[in-house]
Amino acid sequence: MGYCLWRCGGGKISPTAGDNFKAPAAGAFQLFVDLNKNQIEITPIVFALIGDATPKGWDGDTDMAYAHGVWTVTADLKIGEMKFRQDHKWNVNYGGSGGTAVFNGGNIKVTSGGSYTVTFDVNNLKYTLVKN
């Protein structure tokens, strides 16, 4: 269900457009609103693991699934380092330590290899690495 202070229709906002704003599907999205142009743009987003501790190393992302405000993946991790990054780009990335995620922070250290369930709560800047 979407909300709009103004009416929304066809990517435009106005006090008389046809309908309330609606998300195109379930999932995580980034919403851009340009009030000068009365335009709305909605773009799906994804977070992924990257680093030498992850299955694809620093050369590839391991995508996470989104549900209820938290990103999750089960992956085989190696001893090494990793980060979370948005949309397979470096402009939004999180590192950290001790379960606290930090924007552009240092790499997260993985000190023991094995199968892990990894969670990332981007709203509260928390993460977990739970060995399975």
Task: Note the topology.
Blueprint: E1 7-9, E2 12-14, E3 29-34, E4 39-44, E5 47-50, E6 62-63, E7 65-67, E8 70-77, E9 80-86, E10 93-97, E11 100-103, E12 108-110, E13 114-121, E14 126-131
Antiparallel strand pairs: 1-2, 3-4, 5-6, 5-9, 7-8, 8-13, 9-10, 9-12, 10-11, 13-14
Unreliable parts: 1-7
According to DSSP, the number of beta strands is 14
User: Which radius of gyration do the C-alpha atoms yield?
Assistant: 18 Å
Largest sheet: 6 strands, antiparallel
- Overall pLDDT: 85
> What kind of assembly state do the chains in view correspond to?
single chain
> What is the N-to-C order of secondary-structure elements (H for helix, E for strand)?
EEEEEEEEEEEEEE
Given helix and strand content, the structural type is mainly beta
Strand percentage lies at: over 45%
Question: Which term fits the overall shape?
Answer: elongated
Distance separating the two termini: 36 Å
SS summary, helix count: 0
The amount of helix comes to under 10%
Provide key terms for this protein.
4-stranded antiparallel sheet; 132 residues; 6-stranded antiparallel sheet; 0% helix; disordered N terminus; mainly beta
